[in-house]
Amino acid sequence: MQNQTGTRRKTTWRIGLSMGAGFKSWGGWLLGGLITLTTLVLWAVEPANLEDLERQLLDKRFELRGQLPADDRVVIVAVDNQSVEELGRWPWSRNTMAALLTAIKHNGARAVGFDITFSEDEANPLDILNRDGPKTLPPETLAQVDRLLSPFASELDPDERFASVLADKVLGDGVVLGYFFYALEKQAPDFDEATLKKQLDLIVDSAYSVARLKGNPEELLGYKGYAVEANIPVLSESASSAGYFNFFPDNVDGKVREVPLVIRYRQQCFPNLALQTVREYLDWPSLEVSVDKAGVRSVRLGPTVLPVDPLGRLLINYRGKGKTFRHISARDVLAGDLPADTFQNKIVLIGITADAVYDMRSTPLDPVFPGVEVHANVIDNILGKDFFQRPDMVENGEWVLLLALGLGLTVLFARIPPMAQGAVTVLLVGVLLSGGQWLFNSHGWWFKEVYPLFLVVFLGASLILFRYILDSQEKRFIRSTFERYLSPSVIKEIVARPGLLELGGEERVMTAFFSDIQSFSTFSETMSPKELVAFLNEYLTGMTNIILEEGGTVDKFEGDAIIAFFGAPLPMQDHAVRCCRAALKMQRYLREQEPTWRERGLPPTYTRMGINTGTMVVGNMGSQHRMDYTMMGDNVNLASRLEGVNKAYGTRLLISHYTFQEIKGQFIVRELDSVRVVGKNEPVILFEVVAEKGEVLPPETMQALDLYSRGLSAYRKQRWNDALDAFRKALSITGDDPPSRIMLERLRQFQNHPPPPDWDGVHNLTQK
Question: How far apart are the C-alpha atoms of 112 and 289, rounded to whole Å?
């Protein structure tokens, strides 16, 4: 049965090779999958160059977020330029440091942290006298002075005096001394084992109160100290606690973004200055660290879990640029120029900011940042539990996002044009950047953006380039495939919209066209081979141009025969109308060319045409080495049969009733007969296309068409006399109407030999 619904149904097979969607789809999927997998591997490996770029993006997030309010419980007493100018160059005497600590504690400070280490003894005045006195004083005088001062040796010793303040239950309460580790073996002093043991004894009391170690600590990940620069014994033994102040700036840009909360040293784990100072402020809560072969698992301060990475580093949530926290000059503290409650219940950090000493660091927000203020930011983060972190859900979300982006973009980009791909890429870059900034600002989460940005940009650019290359190949393929079949305008439209083209075999409702020159063998015998080739080229060019003008596709030439179709490769709703119009134009072209060809001595050209509409298979068909864009199917064969049926009726242009249903009302047609063509059981109603609707025909022609219609109706009702009368009149009006003459001959046969009683009015043809 014929499919006249106008719908399209793809077959389950394809013939030949093409640059179709299958190749595109697999190529795009493979490329998208490879880039996605590569990005996931990079995310897991964390190459240095991408991580450096990630940290630069992190710095930008700090800049975009801006300054946050600093915790006013943290105050910095700075050994600044003014202090050095008035009190002398650094280092100051321990007497001065004792006075400074005393003033701070009398002012109500709850905890005091020294971002300073006192690793060398300060000379005692008596020692100086005994060393240098003999050079300037007589022995009697020197002995007398020694007798007078010896009872006050401790009071005169700066270290002893500073130690006495540290040991005082009020003045020394909550005081944390700073020290540092040598974190590189090549920089560590070459101490003997006894010295190393003594150093450890000076800081061992400040080690983590609970250290859960799985494995040999020397083999565990994280930062390790090879030696320690501790405070001198008299100070270490007098102080409440101690903490290291090591920083480990970024190896590339030297910025301090993290601070280690854990450093391993000789089977022990030690906390840093900021953490110890917070412990003093919070009345010494428990401090626990868990470490295994994977690194530092957790650091817990009382009930608070501090978010550290496997190296034990805490990301610093900087509040702003330098001096975001309150700075008070050490000179003003010693001068007593401050209100009595300046340090009431505060954490005071004592550090150096003077230019001559230069304890400055580079941070994401400030290239010249006081080192002591780094500790202040860490303390602020711990007190406020306002951590900047990468929780597990963020890290897990990153690889899930990478996978979703990779697969999603691959699927999406396979379905949208390059311009839209570029827009989606730009949009996603904006979403990722703004989303990362939002997570940073609102939750304090560090969502690594370099990898999804790399994926989006690289995948987008790669698939756009991939699409561009394939589109270029497809356009070249389309041009090379269809330039022989289609008009330039149709090719241009296909190239601009290749999605309209389905290459390979597919079912489609179309209209097929066949034409043939009557008695071409006899016709060709009157010409030389050269003349024949010239004539055929001229004939076929003229006919083909008309087909292409109407949007048809030339399938092939078989000698003088033309095979064409309308409705592919570009779908068109009016394919039957275009085909019939093209056929009428070709008949007109032949009539116009007849005088010219007659003058050249060529015989008359009589071309028969057959047209049928229905479901056909169309596409690139053939072998791997040779293929054609062609059609096949029963409806194609019927169009070929109709071209041959013209011989039986003496007509030039026949269409089936399937085509008639598509063009009804747009052409002047004559229903000729109902026939069974050779090889078909189903009857076909024949129509002759006479002219386009609106074309003015001679009155006798219109009258003859009407008489033929009456005669056909009488013929089917077996009213033989009425039919004979109508056909005779039609023949007499036109002078020579081959269909009327054919029907008269058949009627005379029926008068002598009537059809059987079950006759259905269908004439059976015996020749193709």
Answer: 24
